[in-house]
Amino acid sequence: MPLTDEQLAVIESDAPILRVEAVAGSGKTWTLVEFAAHHPRSKILYLAYNKAVAVEMREKAKAGGLGNLTVYTIHGLAYRLANGHSYELENDLSELRLEDQYVPSALRGSDLGMPFASLLKDIVNFYLNCELTRLDADLLTAYAAVALPGEEAQDLLGVYGDEMIDLVKNILSDMKNRQSPALHDFYLKMFQFAKIRLPYDVILVDEAQDTSGVMLSIINRQEHARRIFVGDSYQQIYSFRHAVNSLRKVQGESLSLSQTFRFGDALAKEISQRVNQGYTLLEKPPEFRMTGMDMDTRFGNRAFKKKYPLAVIARSNLSLFESVLEHLFGKGVKSMHFEGGYPGYSFMNVRVASLLYLKEGKHDKINDPLVKKFKAFEEIRRWAGKTQNQGLSTMIDLVTKHGSKLYDFDRQIKSRLVDKNQAELIFTTTHKAKGQEYDIVEMVKNDFITRGDILKVLKDDKPDVNPLKLGEEINVYYVAATRGKKSVTLADF
To answer: How far apart are CA 248 and CA 261, in angstroms?
Structure first.
C-alpha cells in the first residue's frame, strides 16, 4: 500500500521530539514499521501499549527483516532492566491485607477500616504510576487533584494525611525488601529511580495518549535519543488508571495522520461532527479532523440489521450483560465470543456467588474474603459506593437485579462460547475493543454519554464537575463509534 503524504512526513521528519496525532484506523502501526525500514542504521526501540501489540509488532519486524527494531512493553523493559524477576509479584493490592497489616489499630475492624485501606491502596497505585518521586505532602495534593476523592476519603486525608504518607513508605519498603509481594508497577517505579540510559537512537512510543506519568518520566530522561510519540488524544480513556496524555505533555514538532483506512468518509465526517459538538459544549475548540475512504460504510437508518457476525459494544459491563441476555433469549443466537475472554467480565465468579450468599443471608457459604468482611448486603453496597469501587458496584447491581438466575445465565452463556472467528456475536466493552476492528458494529443504546447528559451536568453546576472526565466520556463514544468497517449502529449523541 503506498504511503500517504502525512505518513511520509512522519517517516522523513528529523525532529528530536515528534508528536503524531493519529486518528482511529490511520495505519499508525504500518507507518512506524515503515519508519524503521527507512532508518536501517538507527537502533530503534518500539514501546507497545500491551503485550498483544508487542507480539504483533515483533512479527511484523521479523517479516520485514527489521533487525534494527526492538519491541517491548514498558513493563517488559522494566522487568528486564530493573530486576522484576527478583520480586514475588501480584496483580493487585488486597484491601484486606492492607487493613490487617497497615491500617492504624484504632481503625482496624471499624466502619473506617476498609475505607482507609481502600484509600491507601489508591494512593500507592497513584504514586507508582505518577512522575513524582518524593513521598511527601505534594503526593497527596497531586492525588486529590487527579482522583477527586469522595467526602469520606477527603475527611480521612485531612485527619490521617501525614500518617498515610508514612504507611505508603512502609508498604513500598516491604515490597522492596521482599517482605511482601510487589506490584508490577513497583518494578516500573524502580526503573524510574535507576536512571538507566537506554541504548537506542530512536524511541517510538505507541498509544502515547495513555502513558503513565512514570513512563513519560523514564522516556523524557533519554535525551540522547530521538523520541516519537504516536497516539490519538481523542482515544484517551484510561485516566482511571492514572494515565496521562504524552501528546499534550511534551514539547516538539507536531504532525498528524488524519486519514482513516477503516471506513467511509461519510461516517468519518459524522463522527468528527459529534466529537467536535461534544467538546464545544466543554468550551474547547472544534479541532478534531478525520477523513475516510471512498467507500460506503452504512450507519444511521442504513446500518445493517440482524446481520452477522456482529460486534456489540457497551460502555459498561452491566449494560453489556443486559445486551447479552437480550440476544441470548430474544434473538436465538447460538454462538458468541467475549473480547479478551469471558472471565474478564465478572458476570459470575467467586465474588459474585459470595454476594449472592450475602444477599440471601447464607454467611457460611461465602468464600470471598472481602465479601466475608460484611454482615449485610446493603453494607457492602454502601462501601462500594463510598470507595468508588466500580467493579464491585457492577457485581452488586447484577446480583440485585438478577439474583440466583445468574447461575443459569452463566451456564447458558458458557454453552455458546466459541472462538472469535466462529462467533455470530462478539461482545465487548469499549475499553476492551480499543485497538480492535469489526465488520459490523452495534453500540448499545442508552449506555454512552449524549450532548443532553453533558448539558445537564454543566447546568447543575456542582463543585465536583470534572470537565476532563466529561471529555473522556466523549472519547469513549468516539472509540466505540470507530470500530466498524462495513456498518455501525451509532448510539445517540
So the answer is: 25
Cβ neighbours for 448, distance < 8 A, ≥ 6 positions apart = 315, 473, 476, 477, 480, 491, 492, 493
The string of DSSP letters for 52-65 reads: HHHHHHHHHHHHTT
Tell me the average pLDDT of the chain.
94
pLDDT score, position 103: 96
Distant-in-sequence, close-in-space partners of 22: CB < 8 Å, separation ≥ 6 = 28, 31, 230, 231, 232, 256, 257
Higher pLDDT, residue 256 or 388: 256
CA distance 303 to 294: 17
Q: In the structure, what pLDDT confidence band is assigned to residue 464 with cuts at 50, 70 and 90? A: low
Structural contact between residues 152 and 386, judged by C-beta atoms closer than 8 angstroms:
yes
Instruction: State the cell numbers at 200.
Output: 537506542
β-pairing, 17-22 with 211-212? unpaired
What is the β-pairing status of strands 17-22 and 253-257? parallel
Give me the percent of the chain exceeding a pLDDT of 70. Answer: 99
CB proximity list for 71: less than 8 A, separation 6 or greater: 45, 46, 48, 54, 57, 58, 61
Q: Given the DSSP bridges, would you call strands 425-429 and 310-314 parallel, antiparallel or unpaired?
A: parallel
Residue 243 DSSP one-character state: E
- Residue 172 in grid coordinates: 513500598
Mean pLDDT of 427-450: 96
Q: What is the pLDDT of residue 462?
A: 72
What pLDDT band is residue 2 in, cutting at 50, 70 and 90?
Answer: confident
- Inter-residue contact 336 to 414 (CB < 8 Å): no
Helix and strand totals (H; E) in the chain: 21, 18
Cα gap 360→377, rounded to integer Å: 9
Mean pLDDT of 403-408: 95
Q: For 273, what's the count of Cα atoms within 13 Å in the CB-facing half-sphere?
A: 7
Q: Which residues contact 158 (CB under 8 A, 6 or more apart)?
A: none
Q: In the chain, how long is the greatest CA-to-CA distance?
A: 68
- Helix, strand or coil, per DSSP, at residue 237: coil
Pairing outcome for strands 211-212 and 69-73: unpaired
pLDDT digits (tens, 9 = 90+) for 184-208: 999 999 999 999 999 999 999 999 9
Confidence of residue 122 (pLDDT cuts 50, 70, 90): very high
